[in-house]
């Protein structure tokens, strides 16, 4: 039975590790898309960083990026900035890949 318990423990550890990595990638992606949106809205410096943190926090509401997209769409609408849902989706794709690449590069430096 010890071998089975060891395998189960290894699978559980891998699952936790994979979930943690996915969370970090999504958070980094949301920060990047938040900074992109802040720039579109004319925010700079601390205001841009603060907005990016709001975007990261908005991603904690539900799985996926639907909550982030709703926030960005509403904020762009308030500022009367025309950004299509397709453009938001595209930026999320770009930043998700960039976040994944950055995290892997950071991991290799360790």
Describe this structure in words.
The protein has 110 residues and is an all-alpha fold. It has a single domain (26-109), classed as Orthogonal Bundle (Major Prion Protein), CATH 1.10.790.20. The protein is built from four helices and no strands. It has helices spanning 2-40, 45-58, 66-78, 85-109. Helix 1 packs across helix 2 (45-58) and helix 1 (2-40) crosses helix 4. The protein is elongated, with a radius of gyration of 17 Å. The termini are far apart.
Please specify the SSE layout and strand pairing.
Elements: H1 2-40, H2 45-58, H3 66-78, H4 85-109
Throw out a few tags for this protein.
Major Prion Protein; mainly alpha; 110 residues; 4 helices
Helix content: over 70%
The number of strands is: 0
Integer count of domains: 1
Low-confidence stretches: none
Name of the top-level CATH class = Mainly Alpha
Order of helices and strands: HHHH
- Cα separation of the termini: 35 Å
Q: So what's the overall shape? A: elongated
**Main sheet summary:** none
Question: CATH homologous superfamily, by name?
Answer: Domain of unknown function DUF1476
Query: Approximately what portion of the residues adopt beta-strand conformation?
Result: under 5%
Number of helices, where a helix is a run of at least 4 consecutive DSSP H or I residues: 4
Q: Rg, please?
A: 17 Å
Q: At the third CATH level, what is the topology name? A: Major Prion Protein
**CATH-level-2 architecture:** Orthogonal Bundle
Mean pLDDT: 88
User: Which structural class should the secondary elements be placed in?
Assistant: mainly alpha
């Amino acid at each position: 039975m010890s071998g089975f318990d060891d395998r189960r423990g290894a699978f559980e550890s891998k699952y936790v590790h994979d979930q943690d990595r996915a969370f970090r990638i999504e958070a980094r992606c949301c920060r990047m898309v938040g900074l992109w949106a802040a720039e579109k809205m004319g925010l700079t410096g601390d205001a841009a960083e603060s907005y990016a943190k709001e975007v990261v926090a908005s991603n904690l509401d539900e799985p996926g990026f639907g909550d982030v997209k709703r926030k960005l769409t509403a904020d762009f609408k308030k500022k009367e900035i025309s950004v299509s849902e397709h453009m938001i989706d595209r930026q999320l794709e770009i930043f998700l890949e960039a976040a994944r690449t950055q995290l892997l590069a950071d991991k290799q430096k360790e």
